[in-house]
Amino acid sequence: MTVVPTMAPDGPIVAFNDVHKRYGAIDVLKGITFSVRRGEVVCIIGRSGSGKSTALRCINGLERIQAGELTVCGKDISAASRSELRRVRQDVGIVFQSYNLFPHLTVSENIMLAPRRVKGMDRATARTVAEEVLAKVGLADKFDAYPEQLSGGQQQRVAIARALAMQPQLMLFDEVTSALDPELKGEVLRVMEDLAAGGMTMILVTHEMAFARHVADTVIFMHQGRIHETGPGDVLLAPQTPELQQFVANGL
Amino acid sequence: MKYQFDFSFFWDADNAYWQDLAYGALLSAELTIVALVCGFLVGTCAAVGRVTGPGWLRWTIATYVEIIRNTPLLVQTFWLFFGLSSIGFRVPAFAAAVIALTINVGAYSCEIIRAGIESIHKGQVEAAESLALGPISTFLDVILPPAIEKVLPALASQFVLMMLASSIMAQISAEELMAAASRTQSETFRGFEIYIVVAVIYLVMSIILRFIILGLGWIVFPRRRRLAQR
Amino acid sequence: MTTNQLIYLIEGTGWTLLLALTGFLGGGVLGLMIALMRVSRVTSLRWLSYLYVQLVQGIPLPVLMFLSFFGLAVAGFNIPAFVAAAVSMTIFAAAYLGEIWRGSIEAVPKTQWEAGESLGLTDFQQMRDIILPQAIRLSIPPTIGFMVQIIKNTSYSVVIGFIELTQAGKIINNAIYKPFLIFTLVGAIYFSLCSPLSRLSRRLEARLRSRGA
Ligand SMILES: Nc1ncnc2c1ncn2[C@@H]1O[C@H](COP(=O)(O)OP(=O)(O)O)[C@@H](O)[C@H]1O
Ligand SMILES: [Mg+2]
After folding, report:
1. N or C: which end of chain A has fewer CB within 10 A?
2. Is A225 in the pocket of ligand 1 (CB under 6 A)?
3. Distance from the first to the final alpha carbon of chain B
4. Which residues are CB-neighbours of B35 under 8 A, at least 6 positions away?
């Protein structure tokens, strides 16, 4: 996959600078600052309600921020117009906990929809792309299946393939294995591992501590809307703050 | 007193009433189909406006739907037909019937389709937006097809009701099945027999119509077809 | 528009209401029987009621009006249009109310029957003491919603010459020819009768759903 850099290749691909996000009177993000380099794998961990999903959803503009600066692929997201936002979203893939496949479309139609509608790709090219990304997630034989004919793990891998078909520079994963039965988590985690090994820039929210420690270049521990602790994957083995100590003790 | 049923006049050679009734049934079918197609389009657009439009548009559509659903079709038809001609627009009765029925179908379809749209999970829209789909593609590719697929049985029932309701259009002298029936009755004085036959014709038409709508759904929405095969 | 004409409209409204009420009560009694037959264990009763519903739901109400009108006449009854209209409304309402109530009965979870069974209640007692009370609660919103259909559909009795609200409006219009004025007024009367019922039905439905969740 060839990536056309839209900025200096060594600049950060995502940069949060003192980002604030409120829902009504509730402060959800209370000043977040961190950045992600090209090729870096960042795991965000933390208790439910600490603002992990919100931070992720700010990156592709599903949520607008109230204060601070957020740069994604060289573009200031906080002031982006709708069409600029759509441009950025072409470079940012996201996978949700609940798959969100389109139930009325086959696996291949799910994958081909955005390349055809957004990039104007012709049917034959889109088909080739769909075959490629499906092979990458190990589901080449499910090309014509409908989502409801697949297991949860398979659906989630299709969702990953669908995002990959847009050839994104950055992939976001929001607890993509949380809704899966334990025996189905592995196949999805393996796909993400392969992606990481292939050099994809990834930000993932996860509760899989072993996986986080294994693949993450950086672990970010969020607590009550703030980044409480951050470090390399091994920070999980030797937490500095009592909050992370407690979180790790309960989680592992 | 014992009543003697007599259906023979339908086939009497010199005044073949069955032809009259058959032609009337054809006109009823035409009236219904045109109104259903137009009304479905009106209803779909209204549903879109009702869900996504600005406040004034939502209010306008909601008012339209409430007025239509809480007044009789016959009164709406009289209002339109006699009203228009009173201000100089002489609309042919059949056209007025089509318009009145279309407006009616539009209001009911709007409510049904709106319910379908609102039943689509928010995650679907977020997924579409995240894939950089624009608002039009999001709506036409992701929201509308499963919404209509979901409410198709409700639409089919409503459309059958509308076909039956078209029988009132003879009241503005629109030429259709009931008008033919009424003419036959005034010439033969065999009202009971005639309306038994008319009832059977409507019964058959309502079965056919339901069949057509569900058949169309079968063609337009391949998922059910595919999943039913296995 | 003269005062007399206004009074004529109000009288028409009275007939509309009376016809609707008769249709609702008659249709309610017959409809309950249909609903019970539809869920009965006796196959022939189930079939009979199913046939009735399919038949009536496939025939336009104006045709039912004519059938009652001419049918009662050939049976030797010389009857006023109101009776034919009331009979038609009853036949019509019974089919739809029967289906609505069958739906409500079937919406009560199967486990409720089983609970009644295991308490040693007879079929009849299970229906009367356990199922119906719950089904009635579920059936109220759609039943009120259907009252709107009954009120509106009484206007179809114009085909057999019964003078209710719509017919009264048409007669006045023939005299003074102010269709927008008259049919707006007639429509407004129907709206003021139907709209509160529609809103009540929606409100009760929403409440039922929020309780169920
Ligand atoms: N749309 C919303 N409206 C109001 N509050 C919200 C909304 N989305 C999230 N929140 C609140 O924001 C906080 C953080 O949510 P979230 O980012 O989903 O946390 P996490 O993903 O870490 O569990 C929670 O307290 C949640 O209740
Ligand atoms: Mg979350």
Report:
1. C
2. no
3. 60
4. B97, B98, B101, B102, B104, B105, B162, B166
**Angstrom distance (rounded) from CA C104 to CA C35:** 9
Contact C62 B202 (CB under 8 A): no
Collect all residues of chain B within an 8 Å Cβ-Cβ radius of residue A90. 132
Is residue B6 situated within a structural domain?
A: no
d(CA C48, CA C45): 5
Q: What is the pTM of this model?
A: 0.90
* Residue (of A234, A225, A231, A203) closest to A67 by Cα position: A225
Domain of B71?
A: 16-229
How many domains would you assign to chain B? 1
Would residue B98 count as lying in a domain? yes
Show the domains of chain C with their CATH numbers: 3-208 (1.10.3720.10)
Judging by DSSP bridges, how do beta strands A14-23 and A26-36 pair with one another? antiparallel
Say if ligand 1 is within 6 A of residue A26 CB.
yes
> Considering only CA atoms, which residue is closest to atom 12 of ligand 1?
A28
Contacts of C194 in chain B (CB under 8 A): 69-71
Q: What is the ipTM of this complex?
A: 0.93
Residue B63 is assigned to a structural domain of this protein: yes
Ion ligand 2: residues, Cβ under 5 Å: A 53
Amino acid type, B141:
D
| Contact of chains A and C by CB distance (3 or more pairs under 8 angstroms) | no
Which CATH number goes with the domain that contains B133?
A: 1.10.3720.10
Q: Is residue B4 situated within a structural domain? A: no
A117 touches chain B (CB under 8 A): yes
In 10 A of CB B206, how many CB atoms? 20
Mutation choice for A interface testing from B117, B124, B131 by most A CBs within 10 A: B131
C-beta atoms surrounding A58 within 10 Å? 25
- pLDDT tens string, chain B, 230 residues long: the values are 567 788 777 777 666 788 888 999 999 999 999 999 999 999 999 999 999 999 999 999 999 999 999 999 999 999 999 999 999 888 999 999 999 999 999 999 999 999 999 999 999 999 999 999 999 999 999 999 999 999 999 999 999 999 999 999 999 988 999 888 888 888 888 888 889 999 999 999 999 999 999 999 999 998 888 887 75
